Amino acid sequence: MSQPPPLRRSKPVWLRLLLVFGLIVGFVGGAVIGFNAYAAAKLRAAIADYEADGETLDFRSLLPELVPDDQNFCAIPELANLADEELGKANRERIEAMALPEPNAIRGPRPSLPNGATTGKSTDLTLWAKWLTGNEPHNEASAAEAVERALSKDPELVEALIAAVDRPAAAWTPAWKTQELPEILYGIQVPHLKSAQDLIPVVSLLVQVAERTQDTEHAVELTLAQLRLAEAAYGDPMLVGTLVGTTCLTEAFDSIWTIFASGLQTPETIDKLRSAIGRIDVRAAMLQACRADLATGCQAIRYVKSRNELFKTMSDLSYPEGESNKELSFISRKLWSMFTPGICDLNSVNLIGLEYRHLIHPIRDSGIAAASEGSVLEEELTRRKGIWRLDSIFVKLALPMVMKAAKKIAVSEAYFDLAITACRLEAHFAEHGSYPETLGDLPPDMSYDRTASRYRLWLPGPDGEDDGGKRILDPEKPEKTKFHADDYQGDWVWDYPVES
């Protein structure tokens, strides 16, 4: 009688578990390797395409060239080394000492800074005199004297700025190319920009004082100093420098408007102002800022990737302050760390693609306004808002700030065209005694209308629509109107009060 075949012994449970575990590890490992390799290839292709169009992600190569000290407005003793934390400390403290006082319970809110180019109305110095001194001035003349006394804390510094306005260039010192860059470029210190922000309002108000006292030559000299400070700030490769340059330039254009509104300008002063404005290239400054911002962002992503800190970055961005993220288990964290290289590379791919396509390329080819419209980019960012869009963590962090800056700086580009054209019209008046009926060779989209008293220039405002030169001021506080405000409607206008 034959024996039945022996029963097959099943594999031990532990062996089965080991096999399943091996399959899972193999699958996950293959997925990790494949994903990271795919992302790395995408990044190499994105960088190659970017560089093929003449661009670069090398931050140091984007830094401005060195300027000899004897040719540099910012190298005078009073401004030297402002960009160095230690060497420039004394100069920064000197500038800070002459800055406008901070609002407080006694002084109350600070009056609006000169804003004539936007509002079409002169600055009320009586408000400033009362705010600075606490006393009510008797008239405009006494208000101008009171403001001048309050602001004349360091007349030698102001005179030093004026004496250097004819130098060929303006760049902060020590030069960017000579500085040691930090490991994370976002950590670059820019103390000099605070000094520019302290100086500009003071100089702006001194221009108003000079105009009231009919000292046009002094008003022009002060305005030229404003323009040099704007030029220096625009020369910074960082986006924050471009924003400070825009503030400087806006105040300088208000000073130019004030000088022209007084009617005391001469052919010589007009020519000086036009030449000084011509040294500034707003589009080039914004383009430089976007390029540097992209290089800085990609460098930050590489830093996160090299230290495997994506989990921490993700947590910081995804959880409001004070909330816990402890539910992410140890295994989840390990999974994040394995996929970190690929996720970081895809963030770089998207940052390069979006910033180049929607900001750098439009600015380079068409101007800041082409990028500041931003509706397509805004829609793209909206689609990437989900917490699981891991390929867009840094895109969502960086690009909204650049878009907002582009909208503000687009106004400076418009102001630039308006101010240059105003110089041209004032030069025509100085030569012919009248303004022309029509004006050819206007910048794109600009309109000109000779009025009964003088003239009016305008460009379509933020909506891109030509409203016939209609300026829409804030109904409650007209002096607070800002052309770059999100809710501004109407055109960007340059004209004067009827009596001027």
Short description:
This protein is mostly helical and 500 residues long. It contains 16 helices and 3 strands. It is elongated.
Question: In terms of topology, how is this protein built?
Answer:
Blueprint: H1 13-52, H2 89-97, H3 116-119, H4 125-133, H5 140-151, H6 155-163, H7 191-212, H8 216-234, H9 239-262, H10 267-278, H11 282-307, H12 310-318, H13 330-366, H14 368-372, H15 375-383, H16 393-432, E1 447-450, E2 455-459, E3 492-494
Antiparallel strand pairs: 1-2, 2-3
Tally the beta strands: 3
Alpha carbon gap, first and last residue: 128 Å
Principal-axis shape = elongated
Give me the strand/helix succession.
HHHHHHHHHHHHHHHHEEE
Written account of the structure:
The chain is mainly alpha-helical. The chain is 57% helix and 2% strand. It is built from 16 helices and three strands. Strands 1-2-3 form a three-stranded antiparallel sheet, with helices on one face. Strand 1 (447-450) and strand 2 (455-459) form a beta hairpin. Helix 7 runs antiparallel to helix 8 (216-234), helix 8 (216-234) runs parallel beside helix 10 (267-278) and helix 11 (282-307) runs antiparallel to helix 13. The longest helix has 40 residues, at 13-52. The N and C termini lie far apart (128 Å).
